[in-house]
Amino acid sequence: MNKLLLGGLLVVVLLCQQACIAPYEEQLTDVNLDYRDSLFQEIANFQDQALKDSLLGFLEHPNPSYRYQAIMAFASIRDSSMITPLTPLLEDKVDKVRAAAAYAVGQLQLTSSAPLLTGAFDQSDTAGHYKLANRAILEAIGKSADPEYLNLLSTIQTYESKDSALLEGQAWGIYRYALRKMVSPEGTARMAELLKPSYPDKVRLIAANYFFRAENLKLSTLSLPLLQAFQEATDPEIRMALAIGLGKTQQDTALSVLLETLSSEQDYRVRCNIIRAFTNFPYEQVSLAVFSRLQDESPQVRLRATQYFLEKGESQDAGNYWRRAKVTSPWHAQLTLYAAANRHLAPAEQEAKNILNRELRNRFFRAQQPYEKAAAIQALAEFPWNYRFIQREGYKDTSHIVRGASVQALSKIANIPNFKAAFGNASTGIARTLANHFQTAVSSGDSYMMYPASSALQSDNQDFSSMITDFTFLDEAIGKLELPGEVGLYNSLQATKAKLSGQAAPAPSAPDHGNPIAWASLGELDLTPEAIIKTNKGDISIELLPNIAPGSVANFLQLIKKGFYEGRTFHRVIPNFVAQVGEVKPEERDDINYNIRSEISQLHYDQSGLVGMAHAGSNTESTHFFVTHSPTPHLDGNYTIFARLKSGEDVLHNLMIGDAIERITIH
After folding, report:
1. Distance of CA 487 to CAs 186, 554, 556, Å?
2. DSSP assignment of 320-375
3. Domains and CATH numbers, the chain
4. pLDDT single digits (tens) 150-166
């Protein structure tokens, strides 16, 4: 197989290809998107309805803006049969259009596309006419090509610091390979080189995230370069990613620097990641430092510290977790410490465990809000014999949040690795009891109970297929679903039925879309639309991006107009990751029974404060959105970005589970 060079590699650029490139036109050589334009709206509607044949004609439109938009529609639709019509656009005369084509091809993740991408790479473009396209090609190779191209990509040494686009492309490409669980010594060495201060900050950020996200790295010889990069970086978003990389080295020098930094670091996100990095070191070397963070000024850091003890705690300190739980705040951290104590108390300390669980049951009854009750349920699940209490009290609770948490807790119990040892001779009977509880949850009609119950019945830890032979309850539950809004649950229940019956899992059903883009709501926007999200902690301002994700913005505006988000709570907050809101209550399903299309763009999740749509699979977005605390580029290409933070960063970083939106206004 002939290998085609990327930049300084073995590139073969055919002269006939260059000869076919038309001269630059004097007009229509740039991409300008305007959601108010009627043709823009027509293309967006075709994308929303997945009308691929209608979109194809726009790939040859004389206006590059429409070519670009049609290409990006295919990047969201991700139909591998579109590789043929997209390929000629890799040599479009407009750089942004070429880049879009490379992005769309990368989204298809076809190994066969690698020669097409490398063939379109313009090595002779010393003037940078196609710098965006070349960057996109390098990244797309990382998304789609087989491992042999990783070695070629990693050994490019000809790009200089001024070649920022090419360096970004190389770094993104190696990073994308890592997300596909493909790493190489050459790629890791190149990313370590790109951490040096002589390279652009954007390139260093990508390289730092490589060391954050890549698995199975051999970093013992790279401890020093990572240490230097960590200490030299002034950008906390680079430092927080490198903190995780330093942890992976498992070197004493790295630990010393992390311990020293934890006490002086000003950015809470770096402190969170240092605690996360401590999971790579012996408990006795880091536990005191983590205990000190239980009094951190940031509630996110306090919560991250308690999560460390839940994950990595040891029995000799279980009593300490219990004592600290009584004086630590907020309640999220308290109950996580209770869970840690319940998990790590030695079996011999039965009397202490009984007292602790009695406290937790009392805490459940005293809890002031459902999320606190749900956390108490999860802490109780750390002692498997609580399964009776969890089912009895959780299933009958008036809140769907608590009911859902009770099923999740029972699922956790069913999946503990030492299930038989935990229950002894009673294990078989208890497994059958749990199976009955999951059947009850599936039959409840409450999606918050049905989803975790469906997943639990698919467990490999229990042989539920030998206990359940009548699938009537699954058929009845499937028949009562509100489609298309519950298509994710529909697919899960179908997979459960297949697993229990010993059949191959069926292909997931694609969601139907009968909710067209509400262009009238977008017509009311200013040129730079802004939404003010008023929470109980303060105001957050976000800039809406209707040119990038018109359907998502229109949906957001319609929900605001209905008052949907008023009083809605943040149900998912992960320290230094995201704050998410938008749960649909079971009684609201009739009113919110729809999905919208994913609108994937070339924007990267490479900064904090990006607002994305959550989903249960492509094209299942509806009401849930999240705001990022920090760069999260592993989300690229899969989650719609429809807004970005303008102000209120301090409010965002102080949100916790249970905090609420009071109202949202558009300006």
Report:
1. 43, 22, 20
2. HHHHHHTT-SSHHHHHHHHHHHHHHS-TT-HHHHHHHHHHHHHHHHH-SSHHHHHH
3. 15-213 (1.25.10.10), 347-509 (no CATH), 519-666 (2.40.100.10)
4. 999 999 999 998 999 99
Which residue did the predictor score with more confidence, 528 or 234? 234
**Amino acid symbol at 119:** G
pLDDT band at 62 (very low <50, low <70, confident <90, very high): very high
| DSSP 8-state code for residue 155 | T
**Which stretches within 444-532 are classed as H helix?**
447-457, 472-479, 487-501, 519-522
**Could you read off the pLDDT of 611-656 as tens digits, one per residue?**
999 998 899 999 999 999 999 999 999 999 999 999 999 999 999 9
d(CA 299, CA 651): 12
Q: Each residue of 547-574: pLDDT tens digit? A: 999 999 999 999 999 999 999 999 999 9
Judged on CB neighbours under 10 Å (0-12, 13-18, 19+), 189 is: middle
Instruction: Copy the structure tokens of residue 65.
Output: 């803006």
Token reading at 217? 């790295």
Cβ 122 vs Cβ 11: under 8 Å: no
Structure tokens at 282: 């012996």
- List C-alpha distances in Å: 530 to 445, 539, 579, 667: 38, 12, 19, 5
- pLDDT category at 20 given cuts 50, 70, 90 is very low
What distance in Å separates the CA atoms of residue 176 and residue 170, rounded to the nearest whole number? 10
Question: Distance between CA atoms of 654 and 667, rounded to whole angstroms?
Answer: 24
| Dihedral sign for Cα atoms in the order 198, 203, 205, 210 | negative
